[in-house]
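Archive entry: two folds, one per protein. Generate the first.
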Amino acid sequence: MTQDDRTVQHRRARTEVTVEDAAGRPLADAEVVVEQTGHAFGFGNIGFDFLPLVGGPAPEGADEVEAFGTAEGIGLETLADAYVGIFNQTTLPFYWGRYEPRRGHPDEARLRATAEWFVARGVTVKGHPLLWHTVQPAWHADLPLDEVEALQRARSRDLTAGFRGLIDVWDAINEAVIMPVFENGANRITDLAKERGRLGMIRMAFDEARAGNPDAVLLINDFDLSPAYERLLEEVLEAGVRIDAIGLQTHMHQGFRGEEAITAILDRFARFGLPLHMTETTLVSGHLMPPEIEDLNDYRIPEWPSTPEGEERQADEIVRHYRTLVGHPAVQVVNYWGLTDAGSWLGAPSGLLRADGSRKPAYEALRSLVREEWWHAPTTVRTDGEGRVAVEGFTGAYRVTAGDTAAAFPLRHDEPRSQVRLPA
């Protein structure tokens, strides 16, 4: 066992599978093929690029709102092959300003079609975000606060209810640490937060989202990983607000923070006893953003190219970063923030594909981890006299095949024995 095997051992499980024929008889002393078909761990990315390719053009007025994630010139087949080659989760954009640029005309059909496209390919979909102080629609800039609150409550409730069964994971509220003090022009959500208080906004976000879908997984998500976020979480949990997972953003446009720094962050937030979702992760393959930039949004330049040396650095860092995250038992999901450099956030070369759709070394390095090193490849084994075979690997979905028939089974820590019956 290598050092890395030990750090991810908690992700692995062992089970004894009894294989039966269609009549329920043990398939004794027979050759079968065992293979993994899916990870229990969430390896995600954003699916913004797929909206125009699957769902069609954006609604009228949406182009007036700042956006990213439009991989123009790259075909759906190229993007799809790259996506399902690694990822089993996706995040789709529900920013209010682009989802409903004209009042009463939401972008529901396009989001639904794209979500269905992902689900059909075995990808879990998350909606982002239900409540945020940024990317707001211009039409509610002059509305009374009571009306803004009523609209926000209805939005959180209606989205989780309307997409229930298709999208059951949501960022209930985004970047609440700075919400009451954020200056963003005519922004009624910040005004509402000043009036109702930060805790009131968070309670509203979770209560309304859960009213729409009591079974949804609801996150609080933030880029501020300072003690201020910890204090906010303490306040929220003490107030009895139910949070299902803590979202942590790690946009590293100024360079990889390193294993020790990332582990220290994870340890600090793991103390709350909730799953950690690394919701927004980026590493650049060009020059690094200058360290004196405090707000990443302030760094906007005409061109930010990917370079050969930057791509090698990105590949090395993405392996180190993912090993650190998967090695920490509190982390449940890692969501990278951008499949391609085309239309990337802030124009940064942070994608895993170049702007022309070709794959960077970081893509291949991450795929090697997720689908090779951390994957149970098809393996031919022989059952014993009672039809049993031992299976060990990363937790997730598996399949056993005998001849022309196959059956699925889960590999989980709490199931030391499994029984599968092959179809007739």
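Generate the second and append.
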Amino acid sequence: MQNSGLKRRKIRALFIISILLLLIYAKNLIERQSFQSISGTFSEVYNDRLVVEGYIFQISEHLFQIQKLVDHCNLDYDYSKVVDEIEGHENRILALVEDFEATNLTTQEDEYLSDFKKIIVNDLTIKSYDLLYNENEGVNVDQVKLYDQKISQARGDLENLSTIQMQEGEKLISKAKRLINRSQIWAQFEVALLIILIIVMFLLVFRKSEDTKGMIS
């Protein structure tokens, strides 16, 4: 009878130990996935938000240079090649837009970026300098105002895109915080499991020792 009872306790203890080990293994798998998610989240913050904010800044600079050339802000400037210079800035903008399009865009980002691209391609392309200035009439004020209006519209799209970067970045950081907090909870859970495992193994060894003494006596 004693042997039978001892055997049952051993089986029960081994069963409990097996369950605890499986739980620890499952916890480690979940933790590994969590760390991968955290790593992916921070990569997304960098690649799709911080880098994109850099694109927006560079695009804004080129747009500012275009507006300066269109508005004839510098009276001492040689405007003989202004159309080529504007085209150069536009090409660099479109190259940055292409890099922007390769990132993970939200629906709103896609809409604002598409609208911005249409303005650059369709509304700000200047085929002839005469559209801006001629020797007889000077600066074509109406045309310049139209270009300025389109540039302001393009700037509005950039501002909206920049706002989205902030909002999406905050969402990703909040997600990362949740994952980190969850990992901390799982770490505490693992410590609790290890303590239970030690107690069970101690009781198993202790009872085995007591049972052995009882059988000898």
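Annotation attached to the second fold: The chain has one domain: 2-216. Residues 59 and 93 are 5 Å apart (CA to CA).
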